[in-house]
Amino acid sequence: MAERLIYLPLGGAGEIGMNAYVYGYGEPGRERLIVVDLGVTFGDMDSAPGIDLIMADVGWLEANRDRIEGIFITHGHEDHVGALGLLWPKIQKPVHCRRFTGALARLKLEEMGQPVDQLQIHAPRPEVITAGPFQVQFVPISHSIPESSALIIDTPAGRIVHTGDFKLDGTPVVGEAFDPIMWHEIAGEGQGIKVLACDSTNIFSPQPGRSEALLANPLLDFVMAQRQMVVATTFASNIARLKTLAEAGVAAGRKICLLGRAMRRMITVGIETGILTSFPPVVSPEEAAELPRDKVLLIVTGSQGERRAASAQLSRGRYLGIELKEGDSFLFSSRTIPGNERGVIRIQNQLSEMGVDLFDADDGVYHVSGHANRPDIEAVHDLLKPQIVIPMHGEHMHLREHAKLATKKGLAAMVATNGDMIDLTGPVPRVVDQIDTGRLYLDGSVLIGAMDGVVRDRIRMALNGHAMVSVIIDEDDSPLPDAWVELSGLPETGRAGVPVAQSIEGELAEFLDRADGKTVRNDDKLEEAIRKITRQVSMEEIGKKPEVTVIISRLAAE
Amino acid sequence: MAERLIYLPLGGAGEIGMNAYVYGYGEPGRERLIVVDLGVTFGDMDSAPGIDLIMADVGWLEANRDRIEGIFITHGHEDHVGALGLLWPKIQKPVHCRRFTGALARLKLEEMGQPVDQLQIHAPRPEVITAGPFQVQFVPISHSIPESSALIIDTPAGRIVHTGDFKLDGTPVVGEAFDPIMWHEIAGEGQGIKVLACDSTNIFSPQPGRSEALLANPLLDFVMAQRQMVVATTFASNIARLKTLAEAGVAAGRKICLLGRAMRRMITVGIETGILTSFPPVVSPEEAAELPRDKVLLIVTGSQGERRAASAQLSRGRYLGIELKEGDSFLFSSRTIPGNERGVIRIQNQLSEMGVDLFDADDGVYHVSGHANRPDIEAVHDLLKPQIVIPMHGEHMHLREHAKLATKKGLAAMVATNGDMIDLTGPVPRVVDQIDTGRLYLDGSVLIGAMDGVVRDRIRMALNGHAMVSVIIDEDDSPLPDAWVELSGLPETGRAGVPVAQSIEGELAEFLDRADGKTVRNDDKLEEAIRKITRQVSMEEIGKKPEVTVIISRLAAE
């Protein structure tokens, strides 16, 4: 059979977060494969209460492990590398990165006790990595973390450019600038570019993106204008922003103090890997607490309202000896990711109660996005002149809008979401298979499937409460007269003015007294009857049908 | 003792939603009281899973019921009238409204089986309602629902203007325009205005608000430009918007179909109360389904992503015989309220998967806010020239910003949040008491306190899962060797590769076998020991400590 080139997103296509993409080349069903990125996304109470991390279900990769040539990581954001340590055991192939990303990838592997010798650190283009039928180059591109890379993936069927996350920034403060001339060369080599798999997250932003360097003056003006303590929060991995903030602080005569483990780690990794050649000296929280309030700039984690990050800690009172006060200033040098509003607003109100003045980045003066906006995406289409555009990384609406844009420009385009296997060999993309995919959840120390029912049961208990009933059947298959009922997450007293549990126990005692032997001897029947009575009495008493767990204990004849 | 004028917010001050304010006049501790608004807010999975409605805890009003003269409702939004039926039994005093608001208030009372003869319908100013020492007038003001009213509350200590929710709209499409001349008169009467209690929700919006009437042309252009079915969603109570949308549809040659019970009810109430003098004829969903796709405009509920509203139903497939298709258009003529993003995005993606084109109001072309922005609030300060400004209805940060604005203009201002009793008698406001306040939750058919622990337990079960253990102690105070364990919302298999429940049962059996009599005879001690073992084994097996419920059944000697 003729060989073919395939694209298979397992995560990130139809959602923002948990990126995981597969490319393959070879005979159908026997393609050699490479994996691009293994990221996570974060759960929330609405859909995944108690879940620590969410990632793509890589069952298909596990089943086809012998066909995989390697894993390539484009950059060090959690939604691109966060699942590496957790999923590596299912794949067990070499991991390719550049130096800074590699340092973060190493931490992910170490955390999960996976072998770090699988990590291979590469220089950017012109270095070429051969992985089966693929020739891969890391190409510097700008983003909100240093050393973000697009991939050139050369295959016998043509050249793919996989952008990873990117923006067009000629002055990114830290890391490599977007280099249109190099990209022009890349587009001109050989047969040109067959496929552009391209970041779609900001397709609905109509203005051209703005450079990181534009923030230096506004941030300096901002810090200069404040009279007491200044706190600024942003993503820890946005090292350029940390540097701009810190330099603004120093220029305004303040000492810099970093709060939050992730932030200190990023600076360390940045310096160790040579990405960050200069960063102002920092003081410890203890030193900062001793300084006059107008001589300190705190740069802290928790811009998305995370409950355990430094921002939230400061909003709740004294943290590491530092306490915010009336007249202090708190800057969100960040954008609130949709879905995180409640957490951010909670912190903002707590700060307001302390008398802290809030400065919000949602107006864009103190923040720029790390992603290409619609005109930037269009510019990349024009620059690279691909035959096919595959919109990547975005909710369905982003992918669809991106595909419409490409189609309007006369390019072949297709919306492919997680699990769609696309044949890219011909002039237009074609769906050739649908792979069972889904999400894995890290719950405590265990990986579970999103559809295992664990989370469904948690959500049900949270919405409906939980009633537990214990009944005992004696040696002669007669129920003991008392049933014990315990309620959790339910009002104690109902319409009858007595404890709801007591009302249920009363009804159950009556039922058990007259239950026939056939029902009593059958666990399923007995349980079903008890559940029904419990829900019925609850409904009458409190207008709610709880989840019910029944434990039937059968006493054995001694 | 000298008489005094007090203000006491019980809800809405330090949050957006569940408005409930109290004014009092008289000797300290014996003031006669009026209540302004009794609204609800809505729970979410993060803070109140399974809770149907949230409202102010009016325990203080209940305890001082004999001092209350009446309840005044400013307008018909849920966050101002939604708790009336639920809380009326605790207050049991006459309810004063204008006609349209009264029709909605009547529905609230009827739903909860409360007497509707307590409802008194009033004409706007110049009608004066006497309630103890208070002389109250309803004054028309514009908002996103018809007949919104500010209150003039004349007291022996001076005149209060309580704005309710408002905007400055000279052309509100439906209902009364903002009338600056009347407000100028109001400010000029007698001693002028002592206190302005003023809506703060939009204090951070720097541009002057825009009129509802500005939407007619953009909405008509929008509908004219669409080629297939058009769906528009907005708040059901925004009758002006419904009318503008419907008229745009008719002008574009389409039939109008309203989907969602709340929407049809609002139109009915609007027509019955004379608020709405004309509305285009509507067709039923069955008729709409039969019409050519380019001849229909659906106006539907669910702009905030509510799971059971018409928008969500349509996003999931066929609804009342109507199914959206590739090329249809869906307009959000609304703003997403912070915290509702996840639900809205879910619907938008599902629509995108159907091929429906999305038009989003967050850019403001197809939506205007119902609240006064910062310059509008400032204009009201200037127009009314109050002695004291009390920022009302807003998160803490809104109230604080509003107070700063007033102070800068030389007005006395104070941030008062729920439970702060403020003395307004003198030239500057003064905190004189702190009332125990909080939130009540409607859970099924029961009102519970937010701090009762019910919701706390639900959140814990959702985050940690729930383990139930049943042990039986026989007639001789000896535990039976087997403990039964059931897990809910927890992974089935742990590190040991066997069911987690089985691992726990094993450890518990060992413990019960060697437990001393003192522990076994004491329920608390036994329960504590069992809980500890259960959590320990879970932690080892799955890295998580679940909530644990223990049921100890003691067999009685027969």
From TrEMBL, chains A, B:
It comes from the Bacteria. Pfam families: Lactamase_B (PF00753), RMMBL (PF07521), RNase_J_b_CASP (PF22505), RNase_J_C (PF17770). GO terms for molecular function: exonuclease activity; metal ion binding; RNA binding. Transmembrane segments: none annotated. Keywords: Exonuclease, Hydrolase, Metal-binding, Nuclease, RNA-binding, Zinc. CDD domains: RNaseJ_MBL-fold (cd07714). This is MBL fold metallo-hydrolase. It comes from Paracoccus limosus.
